[in-house]
Amino acid sequence: MELIEVKLGALARLQKIHSQIDRIRQIRGGLPEEVNDLEDEIEGLKTRVDRIQVEIDELKAEISKRNQVIKESQASIKKYEGQQKNVKNNREFEALNKEIELASLEVLTSERRIKILTEQIQEKMKMQEQTNSNLQERSQDLVDKKSELDLIVSETEAEEKKLLDEAKIAATKMEDRVLVAFEKIRRNMRNGLSVVSTDRGACGGCFAIIPPQRQAEIRQKKKIIVCENCGRILVDRSFFDEPVADVTI
């Protein structure tokens, strides 16, 4: 077997290993990303619940202050009314009356403010309840998605590990320049195929028609040929139909 044919066979073998790994990961689909997204969403919901609680606590604290103002103002009113009974002239009476009016206004203002704050608390509590409901739903979704992912991983991780080990071994036995070219093409292809066979006179990757002369050269296995349309390495179908020896190139 000539050196070029050996290289083509080794490239096809590495591609077959990676294609098997890709198929395993496709079974998982977008589950890993969905799990990560759910975890991020849940953290966001938890943060929102905590933030709403802080806002509720602040509103309650302001209500407490307003209630204290009312208590103090009512005590002042009672005191001023008592002092009015002992005044010596109208001037003192009117001064105390003015204080009573101011204290009464403070009571009224605080009561109105408490009403507004109470309504705000009720609204915040509704928001918190809805957020907690969403949090519970998304938490259950996360449990379900993780269970689904764990099941798939448990069913495929042994096979994936074996294939990854095979890919590492195969990669160490290839020339760096060959491996770099293989990986570069693979990264640029959405389906991960950097080495493909011909299919009915067309590239097995992009399906562009291959000229007859090129097809003949591919069958001869005497040179590395790249698809002029997509840049993939083209090899004879026999490399994918038959086991390929594990060799160093």
Q: What's the layout of helices and strands?
A:
Blueprint lengths: L2 H26 L2 H54 L5 H83 L3 H13 L6 E5 L2 E2 L8 H9 L4 E2 L6 E3 L2 H4 L8
Question: What key phrases describe this protein's structure?
Answer:
Helix Hairpins; mainly alpha
Structure description:
The chain is mostly helical and 249 residues long. The chain has two domains: 3-27 and 171-241, Helix Hairpins (Orthogonal Bundle); 29-155, Helix Hairpins, CATH 1.10.287. The protein is 76% helix and 5% strand. It is built from six helices and four strands. The chain has helices at 3-28, 31-84, 90-172, 176-188, 212-220, 238-241; strands spanning 195-199, 202-203, 225-226, 233-235. Strands 2-1-4-3 form a four-stranded mixed sheet. The longest helix has 83 residues, at 90-172. The radius of gyration is 39 Å and the shape is rod-shaped. The protein starts with a helix and ends in an 8-residue tail after the last helix. 14% of the residues are buried. The model is unreliable at 244-249 (pLDDT under 50).
